[in-house]
Specification:
The chain has 217 residues and is α+β, with helices and mostly antiparallel strands. The chain has helices at residues 28-37, 74-78, 122-136, 149-153, and strands at 24-25, 41-47, 50-56, 59-61, 64-70, 82-96, 104-118, 155-161, 164-170, 188-191.
Length: 217
């Protein structure tokens, strides 16, 4: 049973922040913003008694996360009505300290845990398809050909409530030992970001006069 939605994610033994808890947050808005910016989710399942992790595209519809793949995907089938873990990570910078021990990274991340359920309703599956496509490029579902019945049948869609989880953010420069501050070693942050390049048209494009997407968001 899914708990009623609140402004915060559920803090449980599985999501409690232990190390650097001051960087953590259970604020749902913070978590959703990180999820929306991420391109890839790493999804963990147990398959035949062994842990597996798969990078996947995804889509968020309110407080529901949709995952999809081929109906024969063993990991997705194993994750149906089973516990799964999903992580999202945005790398914002390399933090270089004067000592090797204090090197770090600036990041924003979210960890979700819960039970994934199979989506059987065709209307919801079509909705999930649109949500996943629009996560890659906003508004894309309005211009691309929608999935046909055969594509719907051969695709497994899982629904995971965004309910139990936590976010964590590190920002700023290196944390140094006072005795290291005088060392002749460069220290600071090397920013990292994903930048969209100019759209490259498909060489097989036969229709002319089409406007390329302006940006992902």
């Amino acid at each position: 049973m899914i708990s009623p939605m609140t402004d915060d994610l559920l803090e449980t033994g599985r999501t409690q922040l232990r190390r650097h808890a001051e960087r953590g947050s259970f604020d749902r808005a913070v978590a959703n913003a990180i999820i929306d910016e991420a391109y890839i989710a790493h999804v963990g399942f147990v398959v035949d008694g062994e842990p597996r992790v798969l990078p996947m595209t995804f889509g968020r519809d309110g407080e529901v996360l949709y995952l999809h793949g081929a109906v024969g995907n063993a990991m997705l089938r194993a994750g149906t009505d089973a516990a799964v873990g999903v992580t999202f990570t945005l790398l914002d910078g390399l933090v270089l300290a004067r000592s090797a021990f204090h090197h770090s990274m600036n990041f924003r991340s979210v960890v979700l845990v819960g039970t994934a359920t199979k989506v059987d309703d065709v209307a919801e599956k079509r909705r999930a398809f649109d949500v996943i496509v629009d996560h890659v490029m906003a508004g894309r579902s309005e211009t691309a050909r929608p999935a046909n019945d055969a594509e719907i049948r051969t695709t497994l869609v899982l629904r995971l409530p965004i309910a139990e989880g936590s976010a964590k953010v590190r920002a700023g420069g290196p944390i140094e030992e006072p005795s290291d501050l005088g060392l002749p070693v460069w220290a600071g942050v090397v920013p990292i970001s994903i930048v969209e390049g100019p759209p490259e048209p498909d060489p097989l494009q036969t229709v002319t006069g089409l406007t390329p997407p302006a940006s992902r968001r």
